[in-house]
Amino acid sequence: MSQGIIDNLVAELTRLPGIGRKSAQRLAFFILSMPANEAKSIADAIIRVKENARFCSNCYNITDSDSCAICTDSSRDKTSICVVEEPSNIIAVERTKIFKGLYHVLLGALSPLDGITPDKLRIDELIQRIKRDGIKEVILATNPNTKGEMTARYITELIKPLGIEISRIAYGLPIGSDIEFADEVTLSKALEGRRTL
User: Fold this and answer.
1) Which of 14, 51, 78, 110 has CB 3.0 to 4.6 Å from 24, enough for a Cys bridge?
2) pTM, rounded to two decimals
């Protein structure tokens, strides 16, 4: 067997985020040792997702049909929307099993220096959904960084005149951490997000 085909697979695997050369080599040899049908199943799944994945016409989540499974789920609260930056954020929120409403994916966050202005995000579509669908609550779950904060503030200013409930997810100290090692911004956000017991 030519070493070239292994080198080629290693080179392709290193294109994945977080995969360095050593991890790619381990993966390449693991794939080589797999039964052919399992390796083919992985390859087929990658091809299917590339050929069939598209954005939901309502919320911009990833789906293989016009509307995603969350938007078409009749048990979801249709009056509440959680706004996130990327489709991957939905997976994180869903893992909590707490939020039972709908989502809206912005497909990014405001960053004027990078040329990402409001017209490049799905903010207009969010406002249209709120007005059209009788939304009563919007939860802003953008990332707790400068871009996420700027985006949350911008959206808040647009939604406030509509007279609906709007909130921002709380953030601060992670579970298991020590207060003495927290930076000032994290600790101040934890204090701001405190709740009555």
Assistant:
1) 14
2) 0.81
